[in-house]
Specification:
CATH architecture of the largest domain in chain A: 3-Layer(aba) Sandwich
Largest interface: A-B, 118 and 118 residues
Distance between the termini of chain A: 45 Å
CATH superfamily of the largest domain in chain A: NADH Oxidase
CATH topology of the largest domain in chain A: NADH Oxidase
Strand order of the largest sheet of chain A: 1-2-4-3
CATH class of the largest domain in chain A: Alpha Beta
Shape of chain A: globular
Oligomer: homodimer
Helix content of chain A: 40-55%
Strand content of chain A: 5-15%
Structural class of chain A: alpha+beta
Number of strands of chain A: 5
Largest sheet of chain A: 4 strands, antiparallel
Number of domains of chain A: 2
Number of helices of chain A: 11
Radius of gyration of chain A: 20 Å
Amino acid sequence: MNEVITLLQSHRSVRKFTDQTIPQTVLEELIKCGQAAATSSFIQACTVIQVEDKNKRKLLVDLAGGQPYVEHASRFLVFCADMNRHKLVCDMHNSKMEAGYTEQFITATVDVALFAQNVLTAAQSLGIEGVYIGGIRNNIAEVSDLLELPKLVYPVFGMCLGYPAQDPETKPRLPLSVVLKTDHYQDDNDTTAISEYDEQVREYYRSRTNGKKETAWSEKIADMLVKEARPHMNPYLKDRGFILK
Amino acid sequence: MNEVITLLQSHRSVRKFTDQTIPQTVLEELIKCGQAAATSSFIQACTVIQVEDKNKRKLLVDLAGGQPYVEHASRFLVFCADMNRHKLVCDMHNSKMEAGYTEQFITATVDVALFAQNVLTAAQSLGIEGVYIGGIRNNIAEVSDLLELPKLVYPVFGMCLGYPAQDPETKPRLPLSVVLKTDHYQDDNDTTAISEYDEQVREYYRSRTNGKKETAWSEKIADMLVKEARPHMNPYLKDRGFILK
């Protein structure tokens, strides 16, 4: 329909990068795109830590579950939900901040995601590619210590950015009928639609791996969800002052 | 730097729309842009409910705190974090889903936000404008009932979309030094930077209201955060099967 829509619809994660550096002026322009995103009640709760220290990058590879591109990408950004800034602001006005509400956790987390998605879109419009790194939540307390995050700040995800040295295919998404409903939720036909989609995903993996892998989407999801999911997150967040009430 | 970056940096929320309808084919193209966004571990946890029923739109105006554009916008979308779909998938494979982890709540919520931001960016590239409606969380249980959301689905926010009948200014954002840090968190100079920024925000409100309003950013935030923030969210989410562990 237009170039922006083509850009958005052609998204895929890129994990291999050339040695070319993203200039700091460009990075800052991307961050300004992030800042321009909508922000709930104007809270502006996103803080980005750009990790340049080579040693910290190495440590983050391990903390994020062994993803080498965290070290090798031109830039590695950690996107944090930050309500410490708001505590500072309350202190400026001698107000007592009512922290710890789950609602604030949601608004801050959403703020961060809207911000980050703008950063990635802006980057991709310049021929830069990247990948989100949710793996930093594997060892979130250690990552927080490494980046000296105070209470009321938590790292939501990382992002590798660089000039691409690979050109992967886009991954097929769920049928529109499964994700878009009218007036009310209903999932009566979803099982059938998902079964058809499973075949597409099988074919996607088959063609990418010369027939070695052919997992259906529903199999992958079912396998993943019988296991516990980062059970440390709930106590970690409470310790940092989030989702207390 | 390029048109995409100009588009992203010129974002502002639009709340007044013409009567022109967004064609369904266009809306579906926007949704496909949302689907193309990154999704944590391929979970694809976003479901969008487009609300066409006029009576439901009217009810949503009140439930969202009296925002008339929820009724009058060409389209009103409710973006839901959906783990019910994953339960369905686990049932397909006779697997027992380990639900209720805070981690899953985060990945689903982030998925929704990345998806929605793509929808908005794609819309804006076509001359459509909009605004996020976090206000649906004011009465989230009633909104969930109205849209017949099952357990493991929660409405994160709404979005009005339409052709703009107003052209507001962009709102100034925090100085870059406050939101972008290198290698570690530090807020030593943030108070000074925020005080300078406060003057910009005062000037923004002054010029928009003919001098009637001139609230600084830090004042607005401090005023807001001395109050409780939707205290029903934590019990609501637990009741729906989220953040239980």
